[in-house]
């Protein structure tokens, strides 16, 4: 029997109370090392991702501080680090670009807070009602196509800071490329040098060891160079004044009309972020044999986003790079992430002014180093070779990013993916079966070009029956009856419908079966059934199945159905007119006639 889908119930728990059960000195040491190491990567990375979201760099630290701690306290994974994430930042910016707002303005920051609130409420709702399965609506092919295109958008969006000139603020790839080409002669060599140097430091550090905080080293080195040689006077853009301390919590301005206009984008941001978070947490948990609760993880993700909305933050998600670092450093509990978040908070309190000379080109280099390996258009070709439909969904999602806002592009991809699936289910594969004379098993008669019993039309739908395909199944069977009558005249006595592959049937499908019984009977033929599942039979009963079908024509298996139906056949026809020996029972009749 097929496992039933998860029920939707309202639950909440507090996993952090279990952290210190059997907690040891070794565990505390590992959590401390992981927390400090991740923080060294986190501080510059969160500032860089803030720029990607169109936010002031300091808001990246606000988001990192709040989101990391809240998600760790209320989540279930000991490795998952929640905070600013490249794709989530880019999607969030895409939503606000659609509202024609100007990045890094007070209005932009306010709307980003509202977006974070909406994203948080969506994620919490999904987690509370144990509806995490909805993330499966975004197919793997759409994620691959979007990730490659999104990484290209991210990379291109950083070229303005790397080259030292402003570029078009949009997520449309074509528009950005054209703008960069037009302005390439405006490149500031000092800015480009700083950006290339920062990128080289990060990549070389990564080659030596993943534990070396290359981003932090790049921040220190390039900031010193900018200060020492006064490169800010030569056109190198710097972060400038950075507010010190943690802002007082302020409720995001809630406007129903604005929230409604942002809801579509908020759903996309929430769902895509959930795919990342759930995939990361599940992968790392499986590697070490941890038990984890995906719905609790969604609650943690949601509460984290709600919290950052009150601290001038932006939507946060699960980071693969920082979570992997937690994993490789052997973090024992989510306390490691709390330590990382706390250190970001200390940075806000005591180190914020030291970011004054931090060049924006360095932040762009940090972003580039994080996403460059995500640009993999060849993955789309690989998908196409496996399944052309999935490859096309990935390719169209990838291509749509060139002309559409990101959140719209991923929505288009989801619609295409779901649409292709629904289309396939509307025309299910239906097989006419017969017995193979060599293997004695039931096989596809038409594919193998094997003889069929003139008196029994044996048909098997290879998919569940629902409103979208019920009429197609009905018409297919009726057409096959007409074909059989043209071939053998009035010999056909029974249509045997094998329901083995029908795991589910809805009201429309059930009513179609009742109608099919009647329509087949009008043709002078009886409809028999085999292998009706225990989940399907009650639904047929509700539609009046028992009142319409002869119970002697309902069988538990293929073998039983053939034995039962053969007894009811015209044996004289079998002996004198039928040219085939399809079933072993045929021999008994033909031998007697001989």
List keywords for this structure.
mainly alpha; 25 helices; disordered N terminus; 2 domains; 6-stranded mixed β-sheet; two-stranded antiparallel sheet; Transcription Regulator spoIIAA; elongated; 594 residues
What do you see in this structure?
With 594 residues, this protein is mainly alpha-helical. The chain has two domains: 395 residues, no CATH class; 164 residues, Transcription Regulator spoIIAA (2-Layer Sandwich). Helix content is 60%, strand content 6%. The protein contains 25 helices and eight strands. Strands 4-3-5-6-7-8 form a six-stranded mixed beta sheet. Helix 19 links the parallel strand 5 and strand 6. Helix 1 packs across helix 14, helix 2 packs antiparallel against helix 11 and helix 15 packs antiparallel against helix 16. The longest helix has 33 residues. The two termini are 46 Å apart.
% residues in beta strands: 5-15%
Please give the number of β-strands: 8
**Helix/strand class:** mainly alpha
Number of domains: 2
């Amino acid at each position: 029997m097929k496992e039933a889908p998860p029920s939707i119930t309202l639950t909440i728990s507090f996993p952090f109370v279990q952290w210190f059960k059997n907690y040891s000195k070794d565990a505390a040491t590992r959590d401390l090392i992981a927390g400090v190491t991740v923080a060294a990567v986190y501080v510059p990375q969160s500032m860089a991702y803030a720029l990607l979201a169109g936010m002031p760099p300091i808001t990246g630290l606000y988001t990192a501080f709040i989101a990391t701690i809240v998600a760790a306290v209320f989540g279930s994974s000991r490795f998952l680090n929640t905070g600013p994430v490249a794709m989530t930042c880019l999607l969030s910016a895409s939503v606000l670009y659609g509202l024609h707002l100007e990045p890094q303005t007070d209005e932009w920051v306010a709307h980003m807070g509202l977006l974070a609130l909406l994203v948080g409420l969506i994620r919490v709702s999904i987690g509370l009602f144990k509806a995490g399965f909805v993330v499966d609506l975004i197919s793997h092919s759409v994620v691959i196509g979007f990730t490659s295109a999104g990484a290209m958008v991210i990379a291109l969006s950083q070229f303005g800071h790397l080259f030292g000139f402003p570029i078009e603020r949009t997520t449309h790839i074509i528009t950005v490329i054209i703008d960069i080409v037009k302005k390439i002669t405006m490149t500031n060599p000092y800015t480009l040098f700083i950006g290339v140097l920062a990128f080289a430091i990060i990549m070389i550090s990564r080659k030596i060891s993943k534990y070396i905080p290359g981003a932090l080293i790049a921040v220190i080195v390039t900031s010193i160079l900018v200060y020492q040689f006064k490169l800010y006077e030569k056109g190198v853009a710097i972060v400038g004044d950075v507010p010190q301390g943690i802002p007082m919590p302020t409720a995001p301005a809630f406007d129903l009309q604005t929230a409604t206009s942002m809801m579509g984008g908020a759903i996309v941001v929430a769902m895509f972020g959930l795919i990342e978070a759930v995939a990361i947490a599940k992968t790392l948990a499986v590697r070490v044999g941890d038990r984890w609760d995906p719905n609790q993880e969604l609650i943690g993700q949601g509460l984290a986003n709600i919290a950052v909305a009150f601290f001038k933050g932006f939507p946060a998600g699960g980071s693969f790079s920082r979570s992997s670092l937690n994993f490789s450093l052997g973090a024992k509990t989510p306390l490691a992430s709390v330590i990382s978040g706390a250190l970001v908070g200390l940075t806000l309190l005591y180190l914020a002014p030291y970011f004054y000379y931090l060049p924006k080109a360095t932040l762009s280099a940090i972003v580039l180093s994080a996403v460059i390996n995500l640009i993999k258009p060849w993955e789309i070709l690989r998908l196409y070779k496996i399944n052309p439909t999935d490859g096309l969904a990935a390719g169209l999602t990838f291509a749509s990013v060139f002309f559409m806002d990101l959140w719209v592009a991923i929505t288009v991809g989801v619609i295409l993916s779901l649409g292709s699936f629904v289309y396939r289910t509307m025309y299910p594969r239906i097989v006419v079966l017969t017995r193979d004379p060599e293997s004695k098993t039931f096989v596809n008669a038409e594919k193998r070009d094997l003889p069929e019993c003139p008196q029994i039309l044996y048909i098997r739908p290879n998919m569940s029956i629902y409103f979208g395909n019920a009429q197609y199944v009905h018409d297919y069977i009726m057409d096959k009856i007409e074909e059989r009558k043209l071939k053998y005249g009035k010999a056909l006595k029974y249509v045997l419908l094998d329901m083995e592959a029908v795991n589910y049937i809805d009201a429309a499908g059930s009513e179609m079966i009742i109608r099919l019984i009647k329509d087949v009977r009008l043709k002078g033929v009886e409809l028999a059934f085999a292998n009706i599942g225990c989940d399907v039979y009650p639904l047929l009963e509700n539609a009046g199945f028992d009142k319409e079908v002869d119970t002697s024509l309902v069988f538990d298996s293929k073998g039983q159905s053939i034995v039962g139906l053969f007894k009811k056949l015209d044996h004289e026809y079998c002996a004198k007119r039928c040219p085939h020996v399809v079933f072993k029972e045929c021999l008994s009749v033909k031998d007697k006639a001989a």
